[in-house]
UniProtKB/TrEMBL annotation, chain A:
Its main location: membrane. The keyword Cell membrane applies. GO terms for cellular component: plasma membrane. The chain crosses the membrane at residues 52-77, 89-112, 132-154, 198-215, 246-268. Keywords: Cell membrane, Membrane, Transmembrane, Transmembrane helix, Transport. Residues 53-267 form the ABC transmembrane type-1 domain. This is Lactose transport system permease protein LacF. The gene is lacF_8. PROSITE patterns: ABC_TM1 (PS50928).
Automatic annotation (TrEMBL), chain B:
Keywords: Signal. The keyword Transmembrane does not apply. Pfam families: SBP_bac_1 (PF01547). The gene is araN_2. Residues 1-22 form the signal peptide. InterPro entries: Bact_solute-bd_prot1, SBP. The keyword Transcription does not apply. PANTHER family: ARABINOSE-BINDING PROTEIN-RELATED, DIACETYLCHITOBIOSE BINDING PROTEIN DASA. This is Putative arabinose-binding protein. It comes from the Bacteria.
Length: 278, 447
């Protein structure tokens, strides 16, 4: 309880306190003065902040389904495989990207997507095409980030889903076999329904994770221009570290937390309703 | 001892004496060592500063220097800003460009160097640099390190191959761009637009007399990012970009150095520290048959001559430093001593802010970088001319980091063709104004 207070409640309370102040020039010097809800009013009118939410929203509805679909397919294949070296190898290989810090993976992928160094562009140029500038526009940059995030997290989600499949009692398969169910039917009527709780869990984590994307766009800065409003957290960082406006950054952080909370509970509600229908 | 030998020795002594007399209009202040063993942490992105720092420790063995290179510009500033506000984690000494100094003055992060005897050093520096480190004309917040007057780095081999004269005016520059594009079938661009570095663009506007900010007597500000000169410069480059004559590779990335080495960019408008970074970054791969040279910045008309300043830095001491005396000794030595200035030039290509440094013969040695990389050209003299043509009365605002970020954003949109370059400048003004106000400044727009 003490740790909960110190590490969770206290920072949030401090952020709320901070967000009620605004900097102001008094006699030529910048001073923090009480501003009430001024920061929140600005936040809701801040085009860059709103844009960062739009970016992350479209990012999420495209990237999360692709990632979870891939993770599910891989988990099912892995579950089907006979125990042995190959199974262990693939399990580790797919999980490996998750163990690489996202800043490093951002740099690695950054070079693969660099205008002049990318092997992709090399192949295109060899065939007489014009090289692609992968960071030319925000949608393109989001695509690059989506690629990195998917690569990193597919393995992680696969392991969660795979563990849940391993937890299925083997008798269930035997019973299904006796009833004549094979291949696709086993997957469709036994495995997928049993995967539901694990899928919802990974979905929830993915929504929360998506709302917090920061390291990947940050690392991509070393190869080209990535706008501050690419994700909410990147924008928060700019407001805090670049402009030094911590009270406004605190207000933005609280708005971000609120939006993430609302979104996740919305999904939890849908999930709960669906489970009851079953 | 025979006579012949005596004569020879005497002759030798006279020669040495006269040689040293000739050079010794170089003036160094008295450096006073501090007591005890000290280690200073220094944040700087000057190439090879560790080598210069080693020279310092050779002279003052009780002071060790730990140089930390976090990367240029924003990468260092964001961390420094955070450390300043947090009240811990800041280094003893940091490198800050003149334009970004007001940001740190506002946050009360820097030591007033008058308390450490800086007032006596004023006469050692190029006069306008002192104004930059002492913007209120009272407190002194930094020791000038280098300046960045603009000139044009160009590939002499490319101009020779296509038989095009090196441009002296912006009109000639535009015409050379069209001709180069035609002859090379669009492969070779006349120049590159650094769309992610507003101080580069500001320097070009500065060279033509545009002003971006001024502060009123009551402390409030006026911002004029969209002044007519600013719009004209943006339109000029925008037209060349749209025509395909100018590229937009981001500065200081492999994506810029590669086409430079490959001969796909003919010129680059570079500050006085530019030749140093060319010599350093292109050392491994300068490009086949490449001849890098420096010429004056193109002018509005033949006969006129002006330049702007891009970057150039000062060394500051943070209030968190536990050894301000030792830190002062280091930044003083670094920027006024002959050893410091020569080492910074050879290792980092720093164009000294110290008045006497500019006429040092060591900086004209054609066999040492950066001059060596430029075919032995006397690079310093070109930039010295530019330095004298810089309008010295230029004011920076403390929200330059915000202006810088907005600039990169609106320029990206202009390059994608979603808005015109003139609209981009108007948005730059409006959005920066909104951010400055949100960050607490009393500021109005103006012309």
């Amino acid at each position: 309880m003490v740790t909960f207070t110190v590490f969770f409640v206290a920072p949030v309370l401090y952020a709320i306190y901070l967000s009620l102040f605004i900097p102001q020039q008094v006699n030529g010097n910048l001073t923090q003065v009480f501003g009430g809800l001024q920061n929140y009013e600005w936040a809701l009118q801040d085009n860059q902040f709103l844009k960062s939410f739009i970016h992350i929203f479209f990012f999420g509805i495209i990237q999360i389904p692709i990632m979870l679909l891939l993770a599910t397919i891989l988990a099912l294949i892995l579950d089907q495989m006979v125990d042995g070296f190959l199974k262990r190898f693939f399990r580790t290989a797919f999980y490996l990207p998750y163990t690489i810090p996202s800043v490093i993976s951002g740099l690695l992928w950054g070079y693969l997507y660099s205008l002049n160094l990318s092997p992709l562009n090399y192949i295109i140029q060899q065939n007489g095409g014009q090289p692609i500038n992968f960071l030319a526009s925000t949608p393109m940059t989001l695509f690059v980030i989506g690629n990195i995030v998917t690569w990193t997290w597919v393995g992680y989600n696969m392991v969660v889903l795979f563990a849940s499949l391993q937890g299925v009692p083997r008798e269930l398969y035997d019973a299904a076999k006796v009833d004549g169910a094979t291949g696709w039917n086993v997957i469709r009527y036994i495995k997928l329904p049993l995967l539901r709780p694990a899928l919802f869990l990974t979905l929830l984590f993915s929504i929360i994770g998506t709302s917090q994307i920061f390291a990947e766009p940050f690392a991509l800065r070393s190869i080209g221009f990535v706008p501050n409003d690419i994700t909410p957290n990147a924008y928060l960082y700019a407001v805090g570290a670049q402009n030094g406006n911590y009270s406004y950054a605190a207000a933005l952080a609280l708005v971000l937390a609120a939006v993430t909370f609302i979104f996740s509970s919305f999904f939890l509600r849908i999930i709960a309703r669906n489970s009851n229908d079953q | 001892m025979n006579r012949k030998f005596l004569k020879a020795t005497m002759l030798g002594t006279t020669a040495i004496l006269s040689a040293s007399l000739a050079q010794d209009n170089f003036r160094e202040p008295q450096y006073r060592d501090v007591q005890g063993n000290v280690t200073l942490e220094v944040w700087s992105w000057v190439p090879g500063l560790d080598k210069t720092a080693a020279e310092f420790t050779k002279q003052f063995p009780n002071i060790k220097i730990n140089v930390v290179n976090l990367g240029g510009g924003a990468q260092t500033y964001n961390r420094l800003q955070t450390a300043c506000r947090a009240g811990s984690g800041a280094p003893d000494v940091a490198q800050i460009e003149y334009g970004f100094l007001p940001t740190y003055i506002e946050t009360n992060c820097l030591v007033d160097l008058r308390t450490l005897g800086a007032s006596n050093l004023r006469s050692y520096f190029v006069p306008w640099t002192w104004r930059q480190v002492s913007p209120r004309n009272q407190e002194v917040y930094g020791i000038p390190q280098d300046t960045g007057p603009l000139a044009m780095i160009y590939r002499a081999d490319i101009f020779k191959r296509y038989n095009i004269p090196v441009p002296r005016t912006w009109d000639e520059f535009a015409r050379a761009g069209a001709r180069l594009s035609e002859l090379s079938k669009g492969q070779v661009k006349i120049g590159n637009f650094f769309s992610t570095y507003s101080p580069w663009f500001i320097a070009l506007v500065w060279a033509q007399g545009g002003q971006m900010w001024r502060q009123n007597a009551d402390g409030s500000w006026v911002q004029t990012l969209n002044n007519p000169t600013s719009k004209a410069v943006a339109k000029f480059w925008g037209d060349l970009i749209k025509a395909g004559y100018v590229s937009t590779f981001p500065a200081f990335t492999p994506d810029f150095w590669n086409p430079m080495a490959a001969g796909r960019i003919a010129t680059s408008m570079e500050a006085a520290w530019g030749p140093g970074s060319f010599a350093g970054s292109l050392a491994q791969n300068p490009g086949q048959g490449a001849q890098y040279r420096v010429a004056n910045l193109p002018q509005r008309t033949l006969g006129s001559f002006a330049s702007g300043n891009w970057g150039g830095s000062s060394n500051v001491i943070t209030r968190q430093s536990k050894n301000p005396q030792a830190a002062m000794l280091f930044i003083n030595w670094l920027n006024t001593s002959r050893t410091g200035i020569v080492s910074d030039w050879n290792n980092g290509g720093l164009f000294p802010a110290a008045q006497a440094g500019l006429s040092l013969p060591e900086l004209r040695n054609p066999d040492v970088n950066p001059s060596k990389f430029f075919g032995g050209q006397d690079v310093i003299t070109v930039y010295q001319r530019a330095s004298q043509a810089v309008n010295v009365d230029f004011t920076w605002a403390p929200w330059l980091p915000a202006a810088d970020a907005v600039f990169a954003d609106v320029m990206a949109q202009a390059i994608q063709g979603r808005i015109t370059f003139e609209q981009a400048i108007d948005q730059w003004q409006e959005r920066t104004l909104a951010e400055a106000r949100r960050n607490g400044y009393k500021v109005t727009g103006g012309q």
